[in-house]
Design goal:
With about 140 residues, the chain is α+β, with helices and mostly antiparallel strands. Among the domains are: about 35 residues, Single Sheet (N-terminal domain of TfIIb); about 50 residues. It has 4 helices and 3 strands, in the order E-E-E-H-H-H-H. It has a 3-stranded antiparallel beta sheet with strand order 1-2-3, with no helix packed on it. Helix 1 packs across helix 3. The radius of gyration is 26 Å and the shape is elongated. The relative contact order is 0.07. The model has no long low-confidence stretch (mean pLDDT about 85).
Amino acid sequence: MTCHNCQSTCNRFGKHRNGLQRYRCSQCRKTFTEDHTRPLVGMRLPLDKAESILKLLVEGMSLRSIERVTGVHRDTIMSLLLLAGERSQQLMDTKMRNLSARYLQVDEIWTYVGKKRRNVRSGDSPELGDQWATKPKPS
């Protein structure tokens, strides 16, 4: 561990009352604790409760049902879901690089989403309702 003040090496110096390791600089004699890990950024939600909420979300339970079961407000649940999504995207971006797959197995439900002829506009994506894009609209 290096000192934040003088950049020299530090020695262990007991533990803080919250259980974190304390260090003391051998040169400037300042003491400090190890960096705090904050997995939920600014949320004051306990980790075990956050984990159970994410498990319920994965199982397909609705937000309001989770709110009733856990007693956590739905805005907090949405914030947790957003944070979990951002963190999983970061993990995928760092771990999954230069993959070459010969076979893909897709287990999700695939649904065709198209537009009816009256809702297709000239600037729409060609995948949405392309069977109607070339045909003129009836007057």
